[in-house]
Specification:
This protein is an alpha/beta fold and about 190 residues long. It has 5 helices and 8 strands. The protein has a 6-stranded mixed β-sheet. The model has no long low-confidence stretch (mean pLDDT about 90).
Length: about 190
Amino acid sequence: MKVRLTLSKKKILLLASILLLFLLALTLFQRIKLPVYSWNYYGKNLKFRINLRDAEKVPIYPSEIAVRKEILNSFVENITIVFKPGNETINAHYAVEVFEITYKLTLAYKLNFAYIPNFNVVNITSYENLKGTRENPIIALVHPIYSNETSVKLENHVIYIKGENAKSSVEQLRNFDLAVTKFLMAALEIKI
């Protein structure tokens, strides 16, 4: 028994249109860059408060590789995090960023080198004349009220993490988060 299937021109056009719309939607979906708030780092799911795609745009000097080699290597014994304190809101911003950095760098050292360097957090009065060493790099957190740019900059074993000043506290924290996240992306070799 033969079954005969007949399709009218209208049905063929409808099926072709549906197929074309499906392929178009699939192509557009692939081009849409969804936000990324977590990253699988050697089997550990790291969560971030800021979209990694946004943080990726923050400039880093001289390069991501230089920052990674400075902060994540087997010669590091101590990491000193310095900041210039301010009011309660500013100090709360620092606390959030210090936790983010120490937590993720601790995990990176444990997974990459099977040891954890010492972390020191120090209040300073000025960002001038900071001197780190290969064994004791310094991470200088520069709050947006002290900065006119959002960037990460390595100079003389000191990594300056700066958020640009803004009108609102929320925007200041976002700029600071962007810079800290960019630093962590470089240190952990996260590529989006």
